Amino acid sequence: MITKKSEGPVVERELWVENRLGLHARPAMKITNLALQFEADLTLEKDGLQVNARDLLAILTLDCPQGTRLVLKASGADASEAALAVCQLFARKFGES
Amino acid sequence: MTAENHYLQGIPASPGIVIGRAWVLSDRGEIKGRFHLLFTEEEQAHEVDRFQAAMDQAHEDLTRLRQEIAAEFPEHAHLLELHLFILKDQMLNDETLRLIREEHLNAEWALDQAFEKIKELFRRIGDSYIKGRLADVESVYRRLMGNLTGKESLRSFDSPDPVIIVARDLSPAETTQMTGSTVVGFVTERGGRTSHTAIMAQALEIPAVVGLDNATDEINPGDDIIVDGLLGRVILNPDAEVLEKYRRRQVEFAAFKAEVAQFCTFSAYTLDDHATHILANIELPEEVQLALRSGADGVGLYRTEFLYLRQRHLPTEEELYADYKKVVEAMAPRQVTIRTLDIGGDKFLSTLEYPQEMNPALGLRAIRFCLKEQEIFRIQLKAILRASAYGQVRVMFPLISSIQEIREARRLLQEVQEELKAQGQLFDPRMPVGAMIEVPAAVTLATLLAKEADFFSIGTNDLIQYTLAIDRGNKQVAGLYQPLHPAVLRMIQQVVEAGRSGGIPVAVCGEMAGDPLYLAILLGLGVDELSMNHMAIPMVKKVIRLINYMDAKQMASQAMDMVTVEEINEFAAQEMNRRFPEIFRFGSALAGAF
Lengths: 97, 594
Fold this sequence. Notes:
The complex is a heterodimer of chains A (97) and B (594). With 97 residues, chain A is of the alpha+beta class. Chain A has helices at 25-35, 56-61, 79-91, and strands at residues 10-16, 41-46, 49-52, 69-75.
């Protein structure tokens, strides 16, 4: 759950949960699915608590209703592409309202 | 061993009668004894293999189930996909393996510990919507545990005898899994008659009783039980006499069902060619498939409260639109009649602040609530209008009691149409607008209302309640709730005549509409459309096709000449029993209970 410190340059991005229902099962599934398409280590951090973006239940337990601020950290070969893709997913509100 | 002939009463969820051995899905208490520590590496390797096998099995089952139900129940397919995700999750999967390897726990114990940790983390979640997903984790946990122990798994039934599942709750996936096995019925403590599980059971034609408190305590594993899905009844350890009675009833019901099923595909014409529209009442989009299968000519009452009560937020226009569109598209080119929100302010405690009412039946509800909370109403009207672009949609307003109310509602509808037009959204500009006739005032004003509405739909449940001043939920007076009361029949007659002279169709959409006992009289009074639960449709079609409209009119006029409800009841029952004894047996239960 709490992931190890990763090596190499780390891309950091600020994310906001904007959809009305927050990070519930559907958005969490979308994040997990997306994270699996990249090699980079991806973590989401809220109030100092860090979880692996490939870990659906861990994302749920971060408890992120609408308006939550998260920090995304990506490290590894395709870190910047991965970070961009995750940012876009959040910006699109996971396809919800 | 429980005493003989012990009767338990629950809620009927899926019709039919089954007799079998109870298979009680226990909670986790029983599993505790199976926990032990591992002492050798071979033991550990063996436990890891067992857990992997349980995972593989679960993965295979879930994948297959998802494929099987994807087309008909996309929402459930989505749930199964979520379960697949959870199955692969590190917190469940990796943690269990770690506990086996590092803490030397056997597979069941390790899985249990991993689940306990997840539960603890979920306990701290503040957002109740996200917190609710723990139910899905639990479902996956139970599936894995079932695969491990090999005893509680629905899949592993090799019993040659029919088995009835008794559980606290069943997921739609578990319900689906019952087909093709020796599972012949189920009983659950949770759920209502329109829960997803009930609908799945109806789709699979497995008799079911839900909402039976303490079922898993009262019923012991191995008990012989009878499940009467028609009356919502479970009988524990029936004696030979009761068993014989229910075996007969079972055969009769099967014959009845097969017999009326032939009438699904026919139109409802009487012998002398009088046509009636037979429509379905629905609440969830999934029910559309069942309605179509039963031969519905359309949806006569689409209840829209579910989305408002299910979640703590008010639904958005998009959410409403998505559901309505699904129903409208699936029914097209058949008609779908959408009833606007029929709910009281007290139901909205989570989002709006309304005080508890002393007398909610006479309070701020239905159209009154909508005209007060116009923003909520406008959002729903928009969603309905947008869905109207995809088929034949009618809208109707519940609990109309004055001309002013329907004018005001229509004015808002007009405004919303202008807005949609400005936004370039598509909708049917001629969507018919109906008034529900549920209040005596509306009956009295029917000829005037007929000038303001494009159709009438008589909601008999409320009309009877308000006319006779009877609360059916109150056991003291429930017996006085009489659909054939002369006052009620006169009201229906008056509405039909007003509709006729105004040139608009009149529907009946209360429980009365699907009950064969009342059918001939309603037909004879001149009702154009009958809307009922989908399970009543085949038998109603059969009755209509085997009677003469002239006879029905004759019956109605005879009933109108009688002065007491007792006389009319006896007359209707006798006529029905004489013409259709087999339908008389099951008809009222099928129509009323669901």
